[in-house]
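Supplementary Text 2. Reproducibility record for the structural model of the 83-residue chain.

All settings were left at their defaults, and a single model was retained for analysis rather than an ensemble. We include the record here because the model underlies the residue-level annotations in Supplementary Table 4.
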Amino acid sequence: MKWPWAKLRSLCETGPAEADAALDGLNSRWPAVRCHALLILEGVRLSRARRERFTAGLTRLCHEDPDATVREVAAGVARRTGR
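Retained model, structure tokens:
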């Protein structure tokens, strides 16, 4: 079965302002917000500066996040995005 959203690049439409909010979400004190931010940013086209910020946050969350679920989600995003 093909899912109707299979061709979407992201969970929602994300513009520059939303991308900045999602990038800020990588530093949230709540694990669910960090996971959501990762999943949103995974499919968004980012400017060079935003992409560098995302990659740095992704790397940090993969290796240093205190929450195991966030580390697992970050590792999956890293694999899928080649980062």
